[in-house]
Amino acid sequence: MKGRHWLAFWLFFFLGILAWVVARQTSSVMLARNLGGDRTRRSALEGVKSDLLRRIRTASSRAVLIPRAQAHGLRLPADSEIIILQVPNPESR
Prior knowledge:
Shape: elongated
Largest sheet: none
Number of helices: 2
Structural class: mainly alpha
């Protein structure tokens, strides 16, 4: 091969490497943009999750459950009315 063929070969090789670098950097910029969006969505979902957990804790508290139970005709048992049931131990038979 003559000198100008080598020059053309190295020029195309160099341009190919540059195109590959540009494609890789473009890909990484798009990936970083998607990652930022995912982080934003995750923080929003974590906020929703903490709000739902707070609402569950509030709804299952005694301050909420006792008035609702009393509205349905239920009452709290007295201490003498509470019976602790024990499961029989299968090894003692």
